Amino acid sequence: MSDSELLLKPVAELAVLISSRELSPVELAAATIRQIDRTQPVLNAYLERFTGEFTASARRAEQEIRSGDYRGPLHGIPVGLKDLVDARGHVTTGGSIALKAPPATADATVTRRLREAGALITGKLNMVEFAFGFSSVNPHTGDVKNPWNTERVAAGSSSGSAAAVAAGAAAMAIGSDTGGSVRMPAAACGITGLKPTYGVVSRTGVLDLSWSSDHVGPMCRTAIDCALMMNAIAGHDPLDPASSSRKMPDFTSELERGPGGIRIGVPADYFFDGVDPEISAAVMEAVNVLQSAGAVVSEIAMPWVSLGRAVNVAVLLPEAAAVHESLLAERGDLYSPAVRHRLEAGLRISAVDYIHAQRARAKFGHQMADAMRDVDVLITPTVPIQTPTLAETTPPEGSPFPPAGGEFPNFTGVFNATGQPSLSLNCGFTSDGMPVGMMISGKAFCDAQVLGIAHAYQRVTGWAGRTPPVCG
């Protein structure tokens, strides 16, 4: 089996091979290192590689499994960390040169939980500076390229996470999502990415952007893989004030249910207005696939839903400004113009306006819950436009504004305003060969159901198995 054939297998398949001892974690790690060597010069997905630690961890995993100490389906599986997630002994940069932090003295909670599950940390993945942007352009660390077309963005801000998974340079990855930063890259790179319900996954040891909108989530090839990751990383963390104390479900529990009787709502407003025709057609075809398999589809009136992204931004900007206030004052000249402009805009938002935004957010959440009373999930496009090029989303020198692509977060940010689970998966390709993202958004704490519907779709279609050209 070639490296590409091995590395583009879903985690669930790799886990079977490892548990049966047909595949060694050492062999998988070596193949992953070779794939990183091949793809890094093209994609720029990694900022730091933990090659020595990664290899040593693989040897330990192999010894544990041989001795009968198999920890579960993540044991021996390579995982990359977005470089706002702490790993003990390594510097967290946030994709910026402004943050002069020493090496982390402890793992982030998600890092620790992945290690406890037996996962092997490959390294730190590239990202948009301080997770504040929709593109994969970063003037400090270099742009991340899309594995399907290296002239196009991998989207942001979890750019390296999506590109690495799509290219087989990590079997799975951690991303973060404040306005769509897991789901936009998942859509652009043709993988599966889940923004869990707010509070389900701890953010301890993860750089803040907007404390009431930040989510940490899995980025994988399939919904099954995301469910396996969620079983490892979800759960209450007393160190995170926003962490939910609810008992977490088995996130794989809905995978075998199938789509029969699932109630799908398709919004009549906003989410299909002005959407690229190829994207709209692919998403509606996916809805038809699920309906043919037994799902019940209805159109949902949501005339107020267009306010969601505005609410998301109105909360995000001042919270991000509060996070960066001191660093911006000390080292503002080291920020890129685009990120500095956004943070300075947040500083100009008054406390009164922030309170109004939070009140609008509460009302918006009630409207969303009421609209979804008779459906289980909403299905929409993940993004409204086709994946732009790096050139189109690179601001001219000295300018904070990219020439194009600003519509990219319009749909994803709606579900950061509400905090409900929202997943993007591949549902087809445009005429020029770029993946199309479909977004499945469920009710709060119904993450397992969202994953189950995503799996039901992936089981009857072949899109999740497609291989990007960069993998050869």
Explain how this protein is built:
With 472 residues, this protein is of the alpha/beta class. Helices cover 37% and strands 15% of the residues. It is built from 14 helices and 13 strands. The chain has helices at 3-7, 11-19, 25-43, 51-66, 109-116, 159-167, 183-189, 223-233, 277-292, 308-331, 337-347, 351-371, 414-418, 447-460, and strands spanning 46-49, 78-82, 120-125, 145-146, 149-153, 172-177, 192-195, 215-220, 263-267, 296-300, 377-381, 422-429, 435-442. The strands form two sheets. It has an eleven-stranded mixed sheet. A hairpin with a 2-residue loop joins strand 4 (145-146) and strand 5. The radius of gyration is 20 Å and the shape is globular. The mean pLDDT is 97.
